[in-house]
Structure formats: structure tokens, C-alpha cells
Amino acid sequence: MNTHILKDKLFLAIINLLGKPFFSGSAQSAAFLDHLDAISLDLPKLERDGSFIKVPAHGLAGFMEAGLRVIHDAGADAPVVIYHQGGGEIPFDHTISAAYPSGSSSGTTVIAVKTPFQTTQEELRDRFVDFNNYVAMIACVVKLTEALIQSTELAGAACKVVAGYSLGGFVSGRHHIIYNTADAYIPFVSGTAHAEIFLTTVKAAAKARRNPEMLRSRLNFTEAWKKADNSNVFPVLGRYDQLNRLTVQGPSYCGTPFDLWPGGHLYGVQNPQLIRQKIEAVIARFCPSRARA
Predict the structure, then answer these.
(1) Which of 18, 66, 93, 96 lies at a C-alpha separation of 20 to 30 Å from 114?
(2) Mean confidence (pLDDT) of the chain
(3) Can you tell me the distance from the alpha carbon of 111 to that of 46, in angstroms, rounded to the nearest whole number?
(4) Could you report the per-residue pLDDT of 170-214, keeping only the tens digit for each?
């Protein structure tokens, strides 16, 4: 068996063995736009000293706490990357911090975004037995991203890029479809058919699988993608990805060109320099006078 496929299958087996089935408590949720409209949050001052910034929020799942950390500061007028936490990625900035390690030289300001309900694996397992919490989590960080982009803190940025890995990629795509206020988007190993992972690869409760339309109507955004101008979106998929499968997520981009890594779902996590290379290549396209790897 291909080693990339083997690694992914082992990864999925561990997730499915140790985690609770997703949405086993409740497989119902309000519509995504209803969640988004209900989110209220106040963006704190963007500290640039590397400290963690709590972002309290409220929505249809009640109180939530997202977060931010500037992991690399290149100045107020530098290009900015807003990078979203992957599903189960703990600590939340693990991958992007590996791509932009402390002390490295870059002309890019990098802001890592933490989703609600993913501070610990235990919290994740407990909160995501409720589908409503899962959809609220996504809505929260989509709205947080828009608040960041519109903030005076980033008003002078040469360009603004939204990116993320897996779950973070779906968040990036959602922001593009709803707001499209960033200059560019880079969803890594995700797609627009978010619900399909719970119907094919990740253990979801039987009650959720019996009602696929509920999952698809709340999580998938392929139909909206078909109607959008996606020329500022630069996806990356994995040829051997067993979580967000190429055969599912490739077509979900509806003709939008994507890069194809010769690996599985964890390929970028294991090769974080590739994430940085892609980010810097996109920045070079949108603000070439400021890009520096």
C-alpha cells in the first residue's frame, strides 16, 4: 500500500477509535447563515508581541471563545496572512508556527486564529457531539476573520490573505463565498463539500448519517462556489488524501484550478515549508513589491 495512504488510514483509525462519534448527542443545527447572523464579538487590540489574545463571542451555541496570536510581525504595512486552525490541531498554531518558526526572516505578518471548542482534545470530543456547536464554531471564526480584515489594525496592510488547513481550509472557503474581502485565499487539503467527510471517512453518529441532507445543507457550499468568481482562490489538495479525498473535493471546486501535493492529508503538516512556499507565492502575485520569503 502507498505509504501516504497507509499513514492517513492509521490517522483516521486513531481518530475513530479514541474520539466520540461526531453529533451523537444531536445531529440538528440551525442554518449556517443564521449562525453567522447571530454571532456577536468584540475584536480586542491586536497585540503583536506573540501573546495569546482571547476573543469572547456569543451565538446560537451560547458563549464561545476564539483566539488570535501574531506569530510573526513584519510591520503594519506588510502583507498579512490570517491562518485558521485545523480540526483537532492542538495547539492551534502548531502547523503555521512550524512554517514560520520563531526567529525566521519574513516580510509577512502571520496571524493564527484559534476556533472555539478546540482548546483540548477532551473539549473537542465533548462539544462536537452536538452538530449545532460545530456549525457555530465555523460561523464564529468566519465572522472573526471579517472583523480582522475590516479592523483599523490591518488597515495599512499591503494585502490580506486568508488560509487554513483542513477545517481551516473550509473556513477560508466559507469566508470567500460570503464576504470575499481578502485579496486572496489559500485553502489547504479541504474543498467545498465539507459534510462528505462525516458521511465517508470520519466517524459520525448513525443518526447524523441517516440524515445526510442536514449535514450537507449546513456544511457544504459547492452550489455557492459555482456562482462565485473564484479567481483569487488558490487551493491545494493531496493526491492520496484519505480524509478529504481528491475524488470528492477536487470536483467540488467546480473547475477552480488547484495544486496537487504528492501526499496524503498530513503531507503539509509534515512538510510545513510547503505551506509557507505556497503562501509566499500567492503574496508575490498580489503585492510583489512587499513579498519576501
Answers:
(1) 18
(2) 94
(3) 10
(4) 999 999 999 999 999 999 999 999 999 999 999 899 999 999 999
Among 257, 198, 205, which Cα is nearest to 232's?
Answer: 257
d(CA 36, CA 202): 25
DSSP strands (E only) in the chain = 40-41, 53-59, 62-72, 80-84, 109-114, 160-165, 184-188, 236-238, 259-261
Residue 223: pLDDT above 60?
A: yes
DSSP secondary structure letters along 244-280: TTHHHHHHHTTT---EEESS-TTHHHH-HHHHHHHHH
Q: What is the CA radius of gyration of the chain?
A: 18
pLDDT band at 292 (very low <50, low <70, confident <90, very high): very low
H-helix or E-strand spanning residue 145? helix 131-150
Please state, in angstroms and as integers, the Cα–Cα distance from residue 214 to each residue in 29, 124, 190, following that order: 8, 21, 20
Inform me whether the pLDDT recorded for 275 exceeds 50. yes
Q: Is the pTM of this model over 0.70?
A: yes
For residues 115 and 125, give the distance between their C-alpha atoms in angstroms, rounded to a whole number.
Answer: 14
